[in-house]
Amino acid sequence: MVASMDGVDSVQTARLTGRPLKEVDFSDLRLLHSNPEVMATLGGVRTPEETQCFLKACCEHWQQHGFGLWAFREKHSMDFVGRGGLRKATLEHGNEIELTYA
Q1: Does the N-terminal or the C-terminal CB of the chain have fewer CB atoms within 10 Å?
Q2: Whole-angstrom Cα distance, residue 31 to residue 66?
Q3: CB neighbours of 25 closer than 8 A, spacing ≥ 6?
């Protein structure tokens, strides 16, 4: 069982602020997903359509499970620095909770 993060709408560190990924993050995700260095170990560069599907799946994951991926920004400039969080994943041996970040 995984505890839900319902009601938690942001996280803060000394340098970063984070909130659940939303549709408004598409442009930032598109830039991230088009970077060959970033995506080298994440299945390769994604097209805009693939990024849109990824984002839609992330939003649906939050709705279904109460947790998911976050958009992280530098606290003072609000520049996008990446995405990360937990998500359910189906692997060869069964279902797991996966830590993911980029």
Answers
A1: N
A2: 27
A3: 55, 71, 80, 83
pLDDT, position 6: 60
Mean pLDDT of 24-43: 96
Is there a domain that residue 6 lies in?
no
Structure tokens at 81: 């620095």
Question: What's the whole-model pTM score?
Answer: 0.86
Q: Give the pLDDT confidence of 41-100 residue by residue, as tens digits.
A: 999 999 999 999 999 999 999 999 999 999 999 999 999 999 999 999 998 889 999 999
Distances (CA, A) of 42 to 39, 62, 76, 89: 5, 21, 29, 14
Domains in the chain, number: 1
The residue segments making up the domain with residue 90 are: 15-101
For the chain, how big is the Rg over CA atoms in Å?
14
Classify residue 8: in a domain, yes or no. no
Residues 87 and 96: their CA atoms lie apart, in Å, by: 8
Residue 32 placed within a domain? yes
